[in-house]
Amino acid sequence: MRAAGGVAVRREGTMMTRNRNLKRRIRLRMAKTGESYTAARRHVAPADRSAAVFERDVPADYLARAAATPIARTYKSLALEKLRLPAGATVLDIGCGTGEDLSPLLDAVGPHGSVIGVDVDENALATARGSHNDEQLRLLRADAHELDFADASVEAVHTDRTLQHVDSPQRMLRELRRVLVPGGTAVFAEPDWQTLIVDCPAPRLSAAYRRFVEERVIRNARIGSELPRLVRRAGFELDSVTPVTAVYTDAYEADRILGFARVTHRAVAEGCFGTHDAGEWLAHLSGDVFFASLTIFIVAAHATESG
C-alpha cells in the first residue's frame, strides 16, 4: 500500500508539473500573439496532433496574422528603420493590403506628412479603410505598374511581400523610381522561396515541395535574391541588403503562415505530388519534431539625381 501510494503521489506531482508547464506555454503564446486563452491553448496543445489540424483554406485574417508574428515584427521594424522617413514626408505603400503597415508609416511621417496606400484588391482596401481614419492617409485602388502620379512626387516608397506576386517586378520598380524624388528612399521586403527549408527524413519530399512552391505557387519565387540586380536596373542606387530568417520549430505555428496542407493538396491536384507522398509528407510535418525556415531580404535603395 505504501508503494502504491508513493506511485500515486509521484504521478499526481508529474501531472501538476505538466499542467503548470502547459499553462506557462499558453501564457507565453498569449503575450506573443494576443490570442485568447482558448485559442492559444488550441495551438500549444491541440487535441488532435495530426495533419487534419492543418488549415485547408487561406483564412480571412491571414495578413493581420502574419504581421503579428515575432519574425514579421522584427523585419518590419528593420524595414521602417531603413526607410529613414523624415517628418512631413509623403510615403507610398505599394501593396498595402488590409493596412498592417499603415499606422507605423503614419507615425513616422508625423502630422504634417502623408501616406498613400495602393492595392489592386478593393476588399483589402475596404478593410484598411475600416481600421484607419487619418486625414494624412489616402487609399487608392491602382496597378502599381502604371501609377497616376507625377514624376518625382513622393519622398519614399515601401513594399512588403508585394513584388513576389506582381506581373513584372522590373516594370513596377521602374515606375516606383519614376515617382520618387531624387535622393528619396525605397525599401523592399521580399522572401526568397529558394531558401525554404523544411526538415524531413525523406529529402526528396522536401525538395519536391519546395520546387512546387517555386514553380507553381509563387509567381516571382526568387525575388528576394533578384532584387539587388533589379533595383539597379530600375535606376536606383543600392544601399544595403539585409537577410532576416524566420525559424519555426512548431508545425502548427508554421502552417498558419506557410499553409502546408493547402499547398500540398494543391500539389496533388496538379499532379506534382502523389497521394502516398502527400500523406507521408503531412504525417511527418505533424509529428513531434519539426523544423522549417525561410529568409526574407530587406533591400534598401535611393533615387539618384541622374536616375
CATH superfamily of the largest domain: Vaccinia Virus protein VP39
**Taking strands numbered 1, 2, ... along the chain, how are they ordered across the largest sheet?**
3-2-1-4-5-7-6
Count of DSSP helices?
Answer: 12
Assess the beta-strand content as a share of residues: 15-25%
Percent helix among the residues?
A: 40-55%
Secondary-structure-derived class: alpha/beta
The span between the termini is 87 Å
SSE order in H/E notation? Answer: HHHHEHEHEEHEHHEHHHE
Global shape: globular
**For the report, how would you describe the main beta sheet?**
7 strands, mixed
Mean pLDDT: 88
The CATH architecture of the largest domain: 3-Layer(aba) Sandwich
Number of domains: 2
- By CATH, the topology of the largest domain is Rossmann fold
Describe the structure.
With 307 residues, the chain is an alpha/beta fold. The protein has two domains: 1-45; 46-303, Rossmann fold (3-Layer(aba) Sandwich). It has twelve helices and seven strands. It has helices spanning 2-33, 37-44, 62-67, 70-83, 102-109, 122-131, 169-179, 203-217, 223-233, 251-258, 260-269, 275-285; strands at 90-94, 114-119, 137-141, 154-160, 180-198, 236-248, 292-303. A seven-stranded mixed sheet has the order 3-2-1-4-5-7-6, with helices on both faces. Strand 2 (114-119), helix 6 and strand 3 (137-141) form a beta-alpha-beta unit. Helix 1 packs across helix 2, helix 7 crosses helix 9 and helix 11 (260-269) runs antiparallel to helix 12. The model is unreliable at 7-12 (pLDDT under 50).
